[in-house]
Design a protein that fits this description.
The protein is α/β, with parallel strands linked by helices. It has helices at residues 6-9, 11-17, 24-35, 51-58, 71-80, 116-129, 209-218, and strands at residues 2-3, 41-45, 63-68, 85-88, 100-105, 130-141, 157-163, 166-177, 182-191, 198-205, 221-227, 252-259.
């Protein structure tokens, strides 16, 4: 049995496993950006296959730059979802030569910041790359959901997807590492073509609403909205015109925050630091 990240290494399989034919994630994001008056320049952190970035670029008329730590994902994005600028980058350590009106971080990408130092580094990068008043919009798993709830834990979930005539089956098990405050995932893939099984290990940081508010305030952000539903991955899913609930105990968390205390260069449009696009984080699946 090998240990690889099959979905990150096979973007076509990722899009089959997590389909979004109606572009709910991108449409939800655009509704938030419009509602809070964000300007056109958007930084998509953890852009993955690029389908959300491309929709925002072409359909919403935004100027999108996508960052990701998977070369395979970026190659797929440039080929299948062209339009935005796609750059290889670690979300905790990047330096671009411009600022943005909004930074978005979808499908739990923010939760690959496992430690407090990772989270501080990510928020520092966001602060330094947003214009004064810029937005941070994130969609992720909700740590508060797992307080007293176990229905998603320990019991394997089986899913199948077919690509190129080969049926791939995944068995995914989640468990909580309480000491590290991580939701750990083991996913074993098998295929009906006789290839050996692939075992993948990854984890998300479990963040709680009040913890998230404190983290953001410490980096100069004011939380404008923090709620569980509706969103692109909730049940029922978000639809145009839906208003956010006043609760935060579902399995997804949706964040909108505004930068109120920026620092860095005095010119709000430019940064002078050179590009520093460094090592990858593993990301695969929301």
């Amino acid at each position: 049995m090998t240990s690889d990240n099959l979905l990150t290494d096979t973007p076509e399989l990722y899009e089959l496993r997590f389909p979004d034919p109606d572009h709910l994630a991108a449409r939800w994001t655009e509704s938030v950006l419009r509602a809070y008056g964000a300007g056109p320049r958007v930084l998509d952190i953890g852009c993955g296959t690029g389908r959300d970035a491309a929709w925002l670029h072409h359909r919403a008329g935004r100027q999108v730059t996508g960052l990701d730590a998977s070369e395979a994902m970026l190659a797929h994005a440039r080929t299948r979802h062209p339009g935005p600028e796609y750059l290889y980058a670690d979300m905790r350590d990047f330096a671009l030569t411009r600022r943005f009106d909004a930074a978005i971080c979808l499908d739990s990408a923010l939760l690959y910041c496992h430690t407090n130092a990772d989270l501080d580094a990510f928020l520092d990068r966001c602060r330094r790359h947003l214009r004064p008043g810029g937005l941070l919009v994130a969609e992720m798993r909700n740590g508060a959901f797992f307080l007293g709830r176990t229905e998603l834990l320990d019991t394997p979930r089986t899913d199948t997807v077919t690509r190129g005539g080969v049926t791939h089956t995944s068995r995914t098990t989640l468990r909580i590492d309480r000491a590290a405050q991580l939701l750990r995932r083991t996913r074993v893939w098998t295929a009906d073509d006789g290839s050996p099984p692939t075992e993948q290990h990854s984890a998300w940081r479990l963040l709680f609403p009040q913890e998230l508010r404190r983290l953001l305030a410490g980096h100069g952000f004011e939380v404008l909205a923090l709620y569980d539903r509706p969103g692109p991955r909730t049940e029922p899913a978000w639809a145009e015109g839906d208003l956010p609930a006043g609760t935060a105990d579902g399995d997804r968390l949706h964040l909108v925050a505004r930068l109120t205390a920026p620092d860095g260069p005095t010119n709000p449009n430019d940064l002078t630091a050179p590009n520093d696009l460094t090592a990858p984080n593993e990301t695969s699946g929301p």
